[in-house]
Amino acid sequence: MNIHPWAGISEGPGNSPGRSSLNLVQRAEMLVLAELDKPLHISDLCRVMAVSERALRKAFNKTCGLPPCRRLRMLRLSEVRRALLSSHNQDVTVTAIATGFGFAELGRFSVEYRKVFGESPSTTLQRARSESGERCCRRPA
Question: Looking at the structure, do residues 54 and 102 belong to the same domain, yes or no?
Answer without folding.
Answer: no
